[in-house]
Amino acid sequence: MKVLAINGSPKKEGNTYHALKMVGDELLESGIEFEILHVGHKLIHGCIACGKCTENKDEKCTIKTDDLNLWIQQMKEADGIILGSPVYCSGIAGTMKCFLDRLFYVSGANGNLLRHKVAAAVVAVRRTGGSSTLDGLYHYLTYAEMIVATSRYWNVIHGRTPNEVIQDGEGVQIMRVLGKNMAWLLKMKEATSGTIQAPLPEKKVTTNFIR
After folding, report:
1. Please, what is the angle between helix 169-191 and helix 15-29, to 10°?
2. What is the CATH number of the domain that holds 111?
3. How many domains would you assign to the chain?
4. What is the pLDDT of residue 209?
5. Which one of 18, 43, 64, 193 has the largest count of C-beta atoms within 10 Å of its C-beta?
């Protein structure tokens, strides 16, 4: 089994990276492969609402100026996904938001490519805005019918300078417990795959409130 973590920070080894690594260390300890994909420093275009992913259904975004289509396939192959972002003005970092908007739009347009993968989100913040940013990340996970792993508190860790988050004792514990719980969910899912049938996907019902 493999978990792919998405580092949405512009800094390759900033506090978001260290938060993801704390979770990843527990996954590795449980025998689960772990990799961090750094996208936060890339030039990633936002969704232009062209609808081509819905029309073509080829698991691709029509924008070809970045590597999103490659990343989509990497995430499709993973058993688990972790989203990580720093806090920018009490929200998801801009590049990460562009990545997520296009990724989940393509996924949904192609039969929900991430459905029932085990998932989690983590946030690194200096002071405030962590909860609202975490909430924003979870909107994507629940939209895609992913199986969300939890910890013993909200998955927010505090620090300013790179690696300062290791001084946040409670935050470190949160990430550690998250890793253990995620490993447990992954193993339960694998162990029951041949005995408990997963719910069948339903065709999405779309309702507009303006008649």
Report:
1. 40
2. 3.40.50.360
3. 1
4. 85
5. 18
